[in-house]
Amino acid sequence: MLLQRLFLAAWLVPALAMIYIGSAYQAPFAYEPVGPRAFPLLMLGLLAAGLVYLLIHPTPLADDPDELPPGVEGYRKVGLGIALLLGFALAFEPLGFIPASTLAGLCFARLYGGRWLPSLGLAVVMALGLYLLFDRLLDVPLPLGLLAGLEI
Amino acid sequence: MGPSIRRVLLAAAVLLLCSARAAEPVSPECIAPAAPGGGFDLVCKLARQALQEAGLTDRPLQLSYMPGGVGAVAYNTIAAQRPAEPGTLVAFSSGSLLNIALGKFGRFDETAVRWLAVIGTSYGALAVRADSPYRTLDDLLAALRKDPDSVVIGTSGTIGSQDWMQLALLARLAGIDPRELHYVALEGGGEISTALVGGHVQVGSTDISDSMPHLNSGAIRLLAVFAEQRLDEPAMAAIPTAREQGYDVVWPVLRGFYMGPKVSDADYAWWKNAFDHLLASEDFAALRDRYELFPYAMTGAELDAHVRQKVALYREMARDFDLIR
Amino acid sequence: METLNFLMQGFGVALTPTNLLIALIGTLIGTVVGLLPGLGPINGVAILIPVAFAFGLPPESALILLAAVYLGCEYGGRISSILLNIPGEAATLMTCLDGYPMARQGRAGVALSLSAWSSFLGAFIATCGMVLFAPMLAKWAIAFGPAEYFALMVLAIVALAGMAGDKPMKTLVAALLGLFLSCVGIDANSGVYRFTFDSIHVADGIQFVVLVLGLFSVSEILLLLEKTHHGQQAVQATGRMLFNFNEARRVLMINLRCGIGGFIVGVLPGAGATLASALAYSTEKRMAGADGQFGKGDIRGLAAPETAIGASCCGAMVPMLTLGVPGSGTTAVMIGALTLYNITPGPLLFQNEPELVWGLIASLFIANFMLLVLNVPMIKLFTRILAVPNWALAPAIAIITAIGVYAVHATTFDLLLMVAVGILGYAMRKLDFPLSPLLLGFILGGHMEQDLRRALSISNGELDILWSSGIAQGTWAMVALMLALPLLRLWRRRAARRQAAPAALAE
């Protein structure tokens, strides 16, 4: 319950801020009856009202028999996973797709309990294979980064 | 896996050697600053096909899409993050120049990139449904003068877009305040045509390429095309220009490419030569016709000067219409 | 009769060995591209246009290839939805709702084969509809103006409420967030940049791919981490690979209803498969009433959206061929491809290029059939994905997701946004907020706002325009019906209780 209320509050604050920001939008000159402001403000207003309602009457969480509480260790891992994703996103362009994916793939595989050698093998194969698949076959240009000089 | 990787590396090494010898910039790429399927996509494909058929590039141009902020994302990326790539071309149109003039491309202005080539153009046009009471531009403008609010006009995009600008220029020449006109912002020329045929709008401010299908079927008519003179094509020779009806509005929709600001002069010259060569050839003219573009050729320094002049003009117009302060 | 003749000619074109081979290759490539999250039919079709050129294919073969890829992609999209709970594209969002629970119950094979069957039936119905009604439908689609579209969007939003289940407030809040997010970016009507904070990266709005992959894929990776922590494998693949006769019989009426409905929605330019599948799902959920297990692995909840998607994909070809107006992003790319062949889709296409049009329609029949025949034996292969251990699955999902997001704008910003959205998605899932209403609100919100404003621009603010036409009135009547149905059921239940009460007293 507390967690849920915190989440709702963390949601409500930006919603209110957006209402404040949104109320300033105006077309260069009014030529249409509705304007750019009405719809987002209406949605935000209803959203804020809904959030306040939920803050007062939070709904109990449904018990999913499949899901066990992750515990402190579990949340630590989820935190690590998020950090890893962020690192991957930031390294994607500067390092280039192949090095970044190899690194990220290795870390992910380890985080999910893979052993060192298979994880490394998987990461390398996946980075190279996906690069060839997407960049060469599917016409999705991926950054070369560090390997730019090699022109693979 | 081992041998095949080795083969890939070998092939890579060979490729590297080859590309080092040729003067052709490595990994030629054409960025369409929009989602697939629009005019930018087509102009990239035109360049790819033309360059390849003329034997000017060994490897075909790789196409990529970078939608965002009507071209702003691509412009900023090339100006700031990828300024020196010798093989990267980005498609632009008159609309991009208009956006630069309106300050919609962020902190970069028209001097932030190297303008390479314009390879074709389309022209703005005013369309009505076949059974519309307006037969000429004068009919329409007379009705607008009487009550600017009485005619619903569909434009592609909003105030400040190309479609809006050509209409605003026309309205001003006819002594009508463009702000009092009754607009509906639609998406793209195709949507304008269907809205006209469906009777949801009475007039469409659009461009000639987009109007062709419904024009040919006789569902819509063009009151005027905003070109210097009548278009030199059998299907379009009968369409009067705005100029000959007494309103001097010309609105070409140029299509071409720019490159990063730090591309070396040698690479820039290589591309300029390639396009000069292309634009002079008969084969290209035939191909361009298929892509529904009209002739317009300008490259290098000449284009650079032209772009600056255009942007300056647009800026002045935008100020006149109170779009920027 | 003339139509039938033309269709026969069309089959003559489509059944040549070369064209059959092309359709086969197209469906295979399409399935692979569709399977990859973030890449959809737009990419598949865009990639293959130059290939078609390079091989010098004649226009009808090129179009057959593109149609096959298009249908193949739509098919591939459901595989990741059912097996991994990651919708490959907008339309397959509803497929996740019952498809993934089915996979978790070990019925992945049944889900995959039943969805293939449903979408085949949907496509079949739609292709028949095309043969019979295409020119007539074109006129009808043109009559849809902003006011009618607005009514249709309201219908879809009301249908959203059908997904609410036992947590109406949370559904509402999620949908409203989606509706709000659709406002981010340049406003098409006024040119004002809304909620962009002067960043060019969101100037044209938040990209759907970023949102869907963030919400579903990234959050799935994080949830998978929790499960791995407890030593669980994501989903077990066991049991039957094929649906049985009994199951097919149970959903047959749904196939028929949703096939027709999906086709009609698909014909409307811009409405698309997402709207069709959302409407189909929520309508069937309402019709099933209390005895439905919708959301918990009900085969009806899988069959409904799948049939509608199959039907609407074929329906989207109608405005493309008859009006030259793209019914979806993919058909926009196909129009571009036709232009390269000097063919302008539009009102004259049926007259000027009958072989091409009927060849395409015939090849839609064939591609659909091929997809069914090809994919049923491959289901076993697809379900193997589930046997991949988490330590190998998670990195693969993470990297492919990142590629899918990067493919949109090619910027780091989108990758970071995806992670941020993923964290939100994870928190929402942990706290029992449904994700699909958010996405549906996002998809429908943009259309809803713009169409309302366009309609009111046309009428200068007069609200009458919203219900002035017959089509609009019909749609509003359906909205009323949608709203009334649950009330009706409530009333009936109360009446039943009242009847039961005296009986109990009498005993």
Automatic annotation (TrEMBL), chain A:
Keywords for the protein's UniProt record, in alphabetical order: Membrane, Transmembrane, Transmembrane helix
This protein's name: Putative tricarboxylic transport membrane protein
Keyword DNA damage included in the entry's annotation: no
Domain DUF1468: 12-143
Stretch forming the signal peptide: none
Membrane-spanning segments: 6-27, 39-58, 78-109, 116-134
UniProtKB/TrEMBL annotation, chain B:
Highest taxon of source: Bacteria
InterPro entries recorded: BUG, Bug_dom1
Keywords, sorted A to Z: Signal
Signal peptide (UniProt feature, chain positions): 1-22
Family: Belongs to the UPF0065 (bug) family.
Name assigned to this protein: Putative tricarboxylic transport membrane protein
Automatic annotation (TrEMBL), chain C:
Pfam families given in the database record: TctA
Transmembrane segments: 20-39, 45-71, 110-134, 140-160, 172-193, 205-225, 258-281, 356-379, 391-408, 465-488
Record-annotated DUF112 domain positions: 20-440
InterPro entries (alphabetical): DUF112_TM
UniProt keyword annotation of Transmembrane present: yes
Key word Nucleotide-binding present: no
Protein name: Putative tricarboxylic transport membrane protein
